[in-house]
Design brief:
The chain has helices spanning 2-9, 20-28, 32-37, 67-84, 103-114, 133-141, 293-305, 318-328, and strands spanning 54-58, 92-97, 120-125, 129-130, 149-160, 169-170, 176-185, 190-194, 200-204, 207-209, 213-217, 223-228, 247-251, 257-263, 267-270, 280-286, 312-316. By secondary structure, the protein is an alpha/beta fold. It is elongated and about 70 Å long. The chain starts with a helix and ends with a helix.
Amino acid sequence: MDRKRQKSDEGKDIMSNLPEQIISQILSCLPIRDAVRTSVLSKTWIGRWTCVTKLELDEHIFYHGKKKTGKQHFIDFMNRSLLLIESSSVQSLILAISNKYDPSVVNTWMANILSRRVKKLDLRLDHDLNLSALSSHCLFMKNEHYIEELVLKMSRCAIRIPTPSYGHFRFSNLKFLDLSGIIFTYHLKDVRLSCPVLKELKTKNCYWLRVKCVTFEVPLLERFSVKHSSSSRAVSGEESLNNFAAMIKICSSRLTEFTWRGYMLEDLVFGDPSSAQGATANIILRRPQNVTLQETQIRISKLFKQFTQVKCLNLVGTQVTILLLFFFI
């Protein structure tokens, strides 16, 4: 009996008979190029890859030594993928680009990706880009109730923030935010971002151009880190350093770890100084070029006034140590 059943099962396409949800999960575990290749299995598999829940578009896999054809191959694949893949199916999306492309082409991709309302979004770009008004609108207006994890790792990206409908931006479900290499501009002097469930906020070489105050309303924030690299090109050029000296205000009641690494252009203020009472503060400071020692001392003094009740304070930096001697005396 078992032998007869085994013979009758031979030649059956068991994979194709699986529920669509299971097939989608299996295809989502494959590299996107391999998922696309499943279209050649049979007529029933044509287009099934367009229902993937996880989409990873990494430029490096399209080269493999083909420097001349790899770039165009990637462009063609991106255009086809973003056109065919169902927007509602994708829950996690990663885009990694190292080479330089036409800004209009990249912005078209960005607008398409940012309009998909995914839960996890990771965008990595290794060259300069001015984000278009459409892409910026999609980032701030179409993701506020959907995005849970957002990573924007840019080389030098300019983003002009649109005007919010209710006077502030609210990302209802955002739990993790990692920003790098971004210059934000806004037509008003104050920016307010409300992230009621955010637990970790990381910024690296991010600046607010001609903005007076940036307020983060993050009641559940546990970890907050700021890093300014001495090699950053963001503040170079004709803009004065003072145009980047925004006040950063953090409104949190659960902070457990704070890290500031590099030089200080901004003033940091906690809405409730006692919120950092049980936190660990790691501060590695350097004085930037073209900034006087007095200005640095003022900013450091303001910073340390926020940590008079911290659980643990770690300090690194010769100049900082000298300045702190005067501060504590």
